[in-house]
Amino acid sequence: MTAFVQAQVPMVNATRFRAAHEADWEELDRIVTAIEKRGVRGVSEQALLVLPVLYRSALSSLSVARETSLDKSLVAYLEQLCTRAYFQIYGVPTSPMRQLGHFFARSWPRAVQALWKETLVAFLLTAAGAIVAYLLVKNNPSWYYILLPEGSAQGRDPTASVQFLKSTIYGGGADKDQGTLAFFATFLFTHNAQIAIFSFALGFAFCLPTIGLIVYNGLMLGAMVEVFAAKGLGFGFIGWLMIHGTTELFAIMISGAAGFRIGLALAFPGRQSRADAAVAAGRSAATAMGGTVVMLAVAGLLEGIGRQTITSDAPRYAIGTAMLLGWLLYFYWPRRDHGAVV
Known about the structure:
Layout: H1 2-38, H2 45-67, H3 72-90, H4 96-114, H5 116-139, H6 143-147, H7 162-170, H8 175-201, H9 208-229, H10 234-267, H11 274-309, H12 313-332
Helix pairs in contact: 1-2, 1-3, 2-3, 4-11, 5-9, 5-10, 8-9, 8-10, 8-11, 9-10, 10-11, 10-12
């Protein structure tokens, strides 16, 4: 007799439990079904306001149902209901184009803006490396061959003639010159893209490899500038670089900043575990890094078009400066918080 009564307790509890909460479950089911069929606009504002409350209540019911071993059909029903509600509340029921628009309008610039301190550090490291290399090569040209990979400069070294160096930035008309220029431009783009990727990817090693890569990029830049400046062509070479360089170097600095953010989170996690701190830092850092792919693509287009069609200094400086100002305004112009896209 006692065993029979104990066997009946779970059934009675399940019945009472269902009776006490079934109205809320049905209301949640009705709202979720309406959103699934007609979208958010198909339900009232009151329904949208009560949706999170009903969802949390259903989650609580599901937890109780699992812990007290209520009937499996009820647990399955609540699991399905909570899953559907979750995707409607926390999912992103928007078109791919709208999500892409939100990324460029808000997600990416906000992520970069949040990294402004790290980006400034990356800029200072690049500038410091460029200045050091410029002075080293100026005082001892043999440093140039230490700082740049052998053969990468395609004859742009301290022994090159003024005429040759001039033809590489303004074009000499010969097919050989054009081929050499194309190779050198390709080398710069490939090198900068690799620096950007590795600066971010190696940030987890407490920022040290990232610092090294950013400084080394500055060293290469300063060494090349000095070679042209020594022959009176520094202004022209910088103009040739600026068309695409302001975009390309900015992308590298943002990538380095993203790597710094992850490395600092690992080095100084605070009260979080290192894994949790890295995940939290990685969200915004990955968003910022994702956008640099677009910047590198834009730089490639600018370099390809500018190298072939623009051969005077003034337009080159104008384009490079305009691109830099455009990126600064795009990333750091204050934006109002309109909430998340739903």
